[in-house]
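Q: May I have one protein plus its fold?
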Amino acid sequence: MEDIEPPAGDPAGDDAQALDLCDQCGRAVASVDLLGALVPDSSALHSTNPDLDGKRVVLACSVDHLATLIEDYRHRPFVPEEQWAAKVCRTLAECDEPVPLSVVARLSGLSERQAADGVEWHNARAREWQRRYGDRGDG
C-alpha cells in the first residue's frame, strides 16, 4: 500500500488531495474514495501491533475490485509456519547478540515448537532459493 502525498510543509500540499493505489488495478484514487477490507495473509506482519499479524488491509477503487481482492485472499493458503517465521525474524532483528530459541519464542509470543517450525520453514525457502539461483555473489 502506497501513500502518495506531497511532502510535509509543501505549499502545494494544502490544496492537494491524499491519494492511494487500488491493490487490484493500481489506479491512483483519492484516499477518501477507496474501499478497504481486512483479509487473512500469513505473510503480513504489522509494524507496531503483533495482534494484527496475519491480517492485511487491501484497498480498492470499486466494489468489484474489492470483491476480487477478498476472493483472491480467500483462496490463498494461510501458512502458519510462514507467520511464525516472520515473527522470529522480527524478534531477531531487534537482537544484537545470538539468542537461544527459547528466548526468541518467548519474545515473539510463540511456543518453542512454533518458533522452531518457523525457522525450519524459513530455512527451507532459503535452501530452495539456493537450489534455484545458486550463489550470486559479486566476488
